[in-house]
Amino acid sequence: MKLITVEEGKTTFELEVKKEFFNSIGVVQGGLISIIADAAMGVACGTLLDEEYRFYTIEFKINFFKPVKEGKLIAYGKVVNKGKTVVYTEAEVYNSKSQLIAKAVGSCLVFKKNS
């Protein structure tokens, strides 16, 4: 997985599809798609926090729309709402043909590093 872009509240990741990522029916396993979506959302969250803060995912949901057998996965993550302790994020995952294959949402709990 490669981090392609990082902006304030936004990120892009890419992952080249390999046969090792396939499940028993010959398509990319959903857990791998979840990982790239979660990474995109998490890094987007991290771009809005000062050094003394950390976070972790407290809620994650993903919907899958199309199977993937080749090419790349491209995940775009963004922060939708930043509260004092909870950051709400979204990610869209596309295939190499720019087709939406999955959409994820998540919430991150923010806390001070040494508390």
Please describe what this structure looks like.
- The protein has one helix and six strands; from the N terminus they run ββαββββ.
- The protein is mainly beta and 115 residues long.
- It has a single domain (2-112), classed as Thiol Ester Dehydrase, Chain A (Roll), CATH 3.10.129.10.
- β5 and β6 (100-112) form a beta hairpin.
- The longest helix is centred in the N-terminal third of the chain and has 17 residues, at 30-46.
- The mean pLDDT is 96.
Features:
single chain, 115 residues, mainly beta, Thiol Ester Dehydrase, Chain A, 6-stranded antiparallel β-sheet, 1 helix, 6 strands, elongated
Indicate the CATH topology: Thiol Ester Dehydrase, Chain A
Q: Note the overall shape.
A: elongated
Backbone CA Rg: 15 Å
N-to-C terminal Cα separation, in Å?
31 Å
Total beta-strand segments: 6
Kindly report the average pLDDT value: 96
State the helix count.
Answer: 1
CATH architecture identity: Roll
* Helix proportion: 10-25%
Strand content: over 45%
Strand order of the largest sheet: 1-2-4-5-6-3
Helix-strand pattern: EEHEEEE
Which stretches are low in confidence, meaning pLDDT under 50 for 5 or more residues running?
none
Q: What is the CATH superfamily classification?
A: Hotdog Thioesterase
Briefly, what CATH class?
Alpha Beta
Number of domain modules? 1
Please state the structural category.
Answer: mainly beta
Largest sheet entry: 6 strands, antiparallel
